[in-house]
Each structure stands twice: as C-alpha cells, then as structure tokens.
Design brief:
- It is a single chain.
- The chain has 489 residues and is of the alpha+beta class.
- The protein is built from ten helices and 21 strands.
- The strands form five sheets. It has an eight-stranded mixed β-sheet, with helices on both faces. Strands 3, 4, 10, 11, 12 and 18 form a six-stranded mixed β-sheet that branches. Strands 5-9-6 form a three-stranded antiparallel β-sheet.
- The radius of gyration is 24 Å and the shape is globular.
- The two termini are 40 Å apart.
Length: 489
C-alpha cells in the first residue's frame, strides 16, 4: 500500500482512475478527437489521458491494436520522452541496443567482394543517459495503451471506424463492418492517420515535394550467415549490386535489412514493379558477397519509394483565426526510413501539441499558443527532410571508383553518419523565438543549455531527501512547468 496525492489507497500506483472497457461506440461530442492509432496518435492520447477534465476520443479504422510494427528505431531523445510517460525502463529492457555502426565497402583487391572498413560509436558519449534502441513498434503501442488506460481520464481507442469527412469541427465515420455512420463534434480534431490523411485533405493542405525515383525493400528475417557484423548495425555498399542497411532486432535472433532496388523509371512507383521477397533475398545475397546468407524465415517484408514531402502548415489556422484542426506525423511530412526518424519525429509532433492543447482546454493558456505548433514542428520537419534527402542520395549513389568517378566515396557516407549523430539521436532539435520560446538575449546566463533545445539531464542528489537521481527525470508529462535553480559550487 502507498500514500497517494488523493488519499490512502492500495493497488498499483500507476493506475490513476477506474479503467474503462474498450468500446466501438463513438461519443457525440468530445474535447479532442484523434484520428489514427499509430505512434503519433497514441502519444497525444497518452498525454491527454493525464487530465480527468479533458474528454478525448481516439479512433482507428483497424479492427484492433497493431500486432506487427513497421518502424522500430527509437532515438535517445524519444526514450527521454518515454521516461516522462513512465515506461522508458520497459523499452530499454526489451530492446536491442544500437551501440556501434559498422561500415563495409568494396574490397580494393577484389571489387566483387565487400570488406570491413570502420566501426564507430552509434551515439557519442554523454549525449543522453539513454541508448539508441530497436524495438517493435507494436510494443511501443502496448506501452502507450497502458498509459492511456491507467490515466486519470482512462482513454481507450475506438476501432473499426473509417473517417469519411471532416466539415468544420465535425467528423463523419462509417463502421468498417456494419457501414453504420456516426458524427463526432470536437473542440479540436487531430489527424494522425498517415500520408493519405483525410483530415489533411479536409483542411486543404497538401504534401508537396518530390520522389527520388528509387525503390527500397525491407524485410525482417531469421537467417544463417557468416557475415561477422550481423548482430551490429551495418552499412554495406557493394561495387555494383547496391547497398544494404542492416539493423539487428530485439530478442537476439532476427535482423532487419533495408535493400536497395533498381532505379525506377520517372513517374513509376515501386508498387508497380511486382517485387517479390525472393528478389529481395537474392539482392541481399549478391550485396553481401563473399559472405553467405541463408534465409530460414521471413517474418515481415515490404517495398517502398523514397520521397520527401512536406505541408506548408500543420493546421487550419490563419492570420484571422487560431487553429482547431491539426495534422501530425506522416500526415504532414514523409521521408525515407534510413535515418530512423519517421516515428521519432512524429511522436515529437504529438508531444509538442499535447501540452499546448491541454493548457488551452484547461484555461491555462490563450488559444493563440496553438499557432506555435506549426511554427516549431514544421521547421523540424524541414530540417529532417533536408538531411534525409542528402543521406538517401549518398546511400543510393554508386560507390566512387575508376569506372564511377562521380560516385560517392564510402568515407563520405561515414562522415555524414558521424556529423549527423546528434540530429539522428533527436537531441539537436531546436525551437526558435516565439510566444513560448525566448530569443538568445540571455543565453550567457546558461551557456551549457541552449535556448530552445531540450533540457540535458545529469545525475544529481535531490536535496530534500538525499536521493540520487537524474535531474531530467523530474520532468513528467503532466502539463506542469518546472523551474530549476542552480547555485555555484
């Protein structure tokens, strides 16, 4: 038994209210309607579930929770965010830790073979108290669903609901099995339903950008191989067969491979090429030569196009009105998965929007603060796309040689990895001067904490009870502001 804020109770202290049973019934009115139960929507729902005075409904067209995830890379900064929700330890315990990255290129003496060239630390020392890890996206969903269920508002998803349209602040859904239609009116609507977002279309926003006319395959496999770096993150560039990014999976057995496919004709998509999993396996075997790869089982696979697209605004606001409908994640920015940033940046969108929506709904902030969501997150997405375009181009370019003088030197790709380390870890994100972020006029007062960047944690002793702890872990996802006062030695 433990003493709690609201009295003396027994049971799990992580459960803050009576839990609601899952339902397929939509409410008529809510404060916040979230469309999409991916990591973006669940991050936002988990944040809002902390507040018993906010009604939140999260809806998805699928019939139930995700079972096999697509994204799996979790950046250091994202685990810091998970710590604010209270489940970082669970993620770190289950996940594969990406400690090193290995580089392979064509053997100068036998270009048909690959050879190991370098191994670097994946994350620089001291960047974060948490590692860069790999964990099935479905497990991340499980942890978020638990936080939502245990929250003061006990939010549960409503499944099997297909969004048909959004008019003003009213959304129309059709049940995927019965076809029954129902409307939900909300003070705020957030579209987290991916690149084909209906919410985005309803507010007249468009994803704009280009495709690199390049296809990639991805597969999670159980394999027998003599490739020595199969349990380390590895970048493999062959002389003429393309490239592979190898990412070991949690559990100690499976491995994920991102495999370069042939360049696509202009205007064509990889979905029209009828690529098979056997073709992906054969391509991987050619690239890894002279090492053998015997694939025993393919757990999941897919093919996709590389493209970088972005909306000019992430909401329906204008100079005359504050926003009430928002888009987040893949609904407003898309890019390749090479740098492992898609899920991480998308969840960052939701966290940014979550505390602002909660504050406005509870009367703490004026609605104008919601304009800073696009202002801050659109800049982050643009920086990601600029990096992704450069990174994807280097990864797909032929290796520089006498026959390909215009190719990319493998050492240049290594330098890109090293230089972008803080960006891919999520710790380089910076917000600039706005209604919620000061300019740099007083930066000299705390030169080690750049204005607009995340609060870098460090081990400290809490004065009140002498407890050793990480300072940043006192920052919990509950909508409160915190002031830290530092004295000199």
């Amino acid at each position: 038994m433990q003493y709690h804020l609201n009295g003396y109770t027994s049971g799990d202290p992580a459960i803050h209210s009576d839990q609601r049973d899952a339902t397929d019934t939509l409410p008529e009115t809510v404060d916040v309607l979230i469309v999409g139960c991916g990591p973006t929507g669940l991050t936002l729902a988990a944040y809002l579930a902390r507040f018993p005075d906010i009604t939140t409904c999260i809806v998805d067209q699928k019939s139930g929770p995700l079972e096999v995830g697509q994204a799996n890379g979790i950046a250091c900064r994202t685990i810091e965010m998970f710590q604010a929700f209270g489940f970082a330890e669970k993620v770190v315990k289950e996940a594969y830790w990406v400690n090193e990255t290995c580089f392979w290129k064509p053997d100068p003496d036998a270009p048909q073979n690959i050879t190991h060239t370098n191994t670097i630390k994946d994350t620089e020392d001291g960047l974060s108290e948490f590692p860069h890890v790999i964990l099935n996206q479905a497990r991340v969903h499980d942890f978020y669903l638990e936080v939502m269920r245990n929250g003061a508002a006990s939010v549960q998803p409503v499944y099997s609901q297909q969004l048909e349209d959004v008019v003003g602040n009213t959304a129309t859904f059709a049940h995927t099995q019965t076809g029954t239609r129902k409307t939900v009116t909300a003070k705020y609507i957030i579209g987290c339903e991916g690149a084909r977002s209906t919410v985005r279309k309803s507010i007249g926003r468009r994803l704009q950008g280009d495709s690199a006319n390049k296809g990639w395959g991805v597969m999670d496999i159980l394999a027998v191989t003599d490739f020595p770096d199969i349990r380390r993150k590895a970048v493999v560039q062959s002389a003429s067969e393309g490239s592979i990014l190898i990412i070991p999976r949690e559990g100690g057995y499976m491995v994920r491979m991102y495999i370069e496919l042939e360049k696509l004709p202009k205007g064509e998509r990889v979905s029209g090429q009828n690529v098979t999993v056997d073709q992906l396996i054969a391509a991987a075997q050619r690239i890894l030569n002279p090492h053998k790869l015997d694939v025993k089982d393919v757990v999941w696979w897919s093919v996709y196009d590389i493209g970088q697209r972005l909306c000019d605004r992430f909401d329906n606001g204008s100079k005359d009105s504050d926003p009430t409908v928002f888009i987040a994640g893949d609904s407003c920015h898309t890019h390749s998965p090479k740098a492992g940033q898609g899920m991480n940046v998308s969840m960052g969108d939701a966290f940014n929007l979550g505390w602002k929506l909660a504050g406005v709904l509870r009367g703490t902030y004026a609605p104008e603060i919601l304009n800073t969501y696009t202002q801050e997150r659109q800049t982050v997405a643009q920086e990601l796309i600029d990096f992704d375009r450069k990174f994807a181009r280097q990864f797909s370019a032929p290796v520089k040689s006498d026959r390909n003088p215009d190719g990319v030197d493998p050492q240049e790709l290594e330098r890109t990895f090293i230089q972008a380390g803080r960006f891919t870890a999520g710790t380089a994100i910076r917000y600039y001067s706005s209604d919620v972020c000061d300019d740099e006029a007083h930066q000299k007062l705390a030169t080690g904490f750049p204005v607009g960047m995340r609060f870098h944690s460090a081990p400290v002793i809490r004065f009140s009870d002498g407890k050793p702890m990480h300072l940043g872990h006192t920052v919990v996802a509950d909508g409160r502001w915190r002031v830290f006062a530092f004295a000199d030695r």
